[in-house]
Design goal:
With 631 residues, the protein is an alpha+beta fold. It has 16 helices and 24 strands.
Length: 631
């Protein structure tokens, strides 16, 4: 599954060396950390700012009816699709999820709260309650809200959302124009019969080669054994292939949103775009060239239907390309000509000044599990005699990086925490350890040189693929400098399309990697947060045997790691899964599959007009369904 969610903080998207002992010391699972991965705010230097509750500005009372306009400004538009056609089965970045929050609903979702634990906790949405799995953890029964509480489509005339609509939404994940994002992977891996339905559908020709009528005919004539609608469409029963402790998190993704039958008559991501909403807002206008959009209150929605969201503003204006760069976005919010950023964060150069001024409009917020950026070794590279396939070479290079210098590029210790493993604080399976310690996290060139010599390698010349935008050139320069101190030459190349499989870093599996680069620095944002998100981090990055396209850019494939991933996914309890995730983390680091740099807080700014600005980790932004604006 190619989870290329765009981390606004950095504008990103996320050798079979078996059992090799890592150089350096590490802490054991019992000596530090927390096997449930609970986030520890004290890890960050957050002086003068309480970022969990900062920036809310909930003084006064919300309006009794939708009032005012909130303006979002960005500098890059919608990153998933150049057409900016939001399709909840095809959308895969945090900017799109920000809109999905107000325009689509799921069976279960997340509450809005300035308490981190509460914001990561699942709550019922269109379902009446959170289902308790039966049949030894294989069966989930969702009873939908009915009567005056039934969710409604803004169709003509409005009608209730049904279990059949949710089945249709899940089936659409396999549409040939939507499936390349990898969304079906979650459901193929968990729901009985989903893979058998999905494979023929996603293998159909894309675009106009497969008309909308042919796609609809396939969906209507092929059932998924594990999805059953009953009780006149008011009950959805889902049967899994094996228990999954994170299945409700998977069902909270926008990919699991319902879709009405009218969607069957249109091709996805193709003008003229068709939108239907069962949330508080509906997309009224969309400019496919600029990605600009206008959302207005959905007249079919009422507060009685929705226990999570609100409808406080009369209009949401998105000016996706309304600024030339991040600094200009910041200036507009500061001046009050814009209210919120769309695809950017507060520039790192502004952070300390806002902290020193104790500016109430500024806040720093956790999205636990982020690792961004990080350095990937291409273990399939044939350069230097295939040196990066040698685990001892990679272990030596682990000592090269000055993590403190990297954190300074991204705003310093007030936003960034050095990271030494796959899972960061707050992620499932997090237990702090460090196999490659260096003095003050500033690198150890002498140790690096010593270990390279012991590995029998000298005069390494490595090609680094990096993005020529944002902070990425500075990261490349730091990597180049740090490796040079170890006697390693790094040359930079900026591909035209960074994630492309042809000219960029992209690869569909470790068996077909790109071999024209040695190093690269992508980033990763988990699809969900809290104590059940191991699946949303490690498998995509380091499982070489995934049944769906992942983001194992460097081609790492280790059977021990793969076995631990399988055990974690099949574990019947969260604590057992967490233990397996930690073991997999240790194995990846023992193999030196990558160099983690840091985990981060997200710095956001709001205008002084915005009230009740509650951070939503899921979209790495403020929850548009909670805020209101003063005139």
């Amino acid at each position: 599954m190619q989870r290329l969610r765009i981390a606004k903080l950095a504008t990103v998207v996320g050798v079979a060396a078996i059992g090799v002992a890592a150089c350096g010391g590490s802490s054991s699972p019992s000596s530090s950390g927390n096997t449930l991965g609970l986030f520890d705010p004290s890890s960050f230097n957050t002086s003068n700012v309480s970022w969990l509750s900062a920036n809310v500005n909930n003084t006064g009372s919300p309006p009794s009816s939708p009032t005012g306009t909130v303006i979002l400004v960005g500098d890059g538009g919608n990153n998933s699709h150049p057409s900016a056609a939001w399709d909840w089965q095809g959308e895969y970045d945090t900017t799109g999820f920000e809109i999905a929050r107000v325009a689509s609903r799921q069976l279960v979702s997340y509450n809005a709260s300035s308490d981190l634990t509460q914001s990561e906790t699942l709550v019922p949405d269109i379902a009446q309650s959170l289902p308790t799995p039966t049949n030894n953890g294989l069966t989930y029964t969702f009873n939908l809200r009915t009567g005056s509480q039934a969710a409604m489509w803004n169709t003509n005339p409005p009608r209730a959302v049904t279990a059949d609509d949710f089945i249709r939404g899940l089936k659409r994940n396999c549409d040939p124009d939507l499936a390349p994002n990898g969304n079906p992977g979650y459901y193929s891996a968990t729901i009985m019969g989903f893979a058998a339905f999905c494979t023929p559908f996603e293998n159909m020709p894309g675009g106009s080669a497969t008309p909308a009528s042919a796609r609809a005919a396939y969906m209507d004539s092929h059932n998924i054994a594990g999805l059953v609608s009953s009780n006149n469409g008011q009950t959805l029963t889902i049967t899994l292939t094996s228990p999954a402790t994170d299945f409700l998190n998977i069902m909270a993704m926008p990919f699991a949103s319902a879709q009405p039958v009218e969607m069957e008559s249109v091709l996805p991501l193709t003008p003229p775009y068709t939108f239907f909403s069962d949330g508080p807002y509906a997309i009224q206008n969309l400019d496919p060239t600029t990605s600009d959009a206008v959302l207005k209150p959905n007249p079919a929605w009422s507060q009685a239907q929705d226990p999570i969201r609100h409808q406080y503003v009369a209009e949401i204006q998105l000016k996706a390309d309304g600024a030339s760069d991040t600094q200009t976005v910041q200036q507009q919010i500061d001046a009050g000509t814009a209210d919120l950023s769309w695809d950017t964060d507060v520039p790192p150069s502004d952070v300390q000044g806002l902290i020193n001024a104790n500016d109430a409009r500024f806040g720093r917020f956790p999205s636990p599990g982020i690792t961004n950026p990080y350095l990937v070794f291409n273990v399939k590279s044939t350069s230097n005699g295939g040196a990066l396939a040698n685990v001892k070479v990679r272990q030596a290079l682990e000592y090269a990086i000055n993590r403190i210098a990297i954190t300074k590029i991204y705003g310093g210790a007030t936003l960034n925490l050095p990271l030494h493993q796959v899972f960061g604080p707050g992620a499932e399976g997090y237990v702090a350890f460090n196999d490659y310690p260096t003095p003050n996290d500033e690198g150890d060139p002498s140790k690096c040189k010593q270990l390279l010599q012991a590995a029998g390698v000298s005069n390494l010349v490595l090609t680094d693929y990096y993005r020529n935008s944002g902070n990425h050139p500075a990261v490349f320069q730091e990597v180049k400098t740090d490796f040079a101190a170890c006697g390693v030459t790094v040359n930079g190349v900026t591909p035209a399309n960074y994630y492309s499989a042809k000219n960029g870093i992209g690869t569909s599996s470790p068996t077909t990697p790109n071999t024209h680069w040695d190093l690269t620095e992508p980033g990763w944002v988990p699809d969900w947060f809290g104590p059940t998100n191991g699946r949303a981090i490690l498998p995509d990055l380091f499982d070489g045997q995934l049944s769906y396209p992942g983001t194992d850019w460097g081609g790492y494939d280790d059977p021990v790691t793969d076995q631990l991933v399988n055990k974690a996914l099949a574990a019947p309890t969260v604590s057992q899964a967490s233990n397996y995730w930690h073991q997999a983390d240790e194995q990846v680091m023992a193999d030196a599959a990558f160099i983690p740099f840091q985990t981060q807080l997200t710095p956001l700014m709001r205008s002084s007009r915005v009230h009740n600005a509650i951070f939503l980790p899921f979209s790495a932004s403020y929850d548009l369904s909670q805020l209101w604006v003063s005139s």
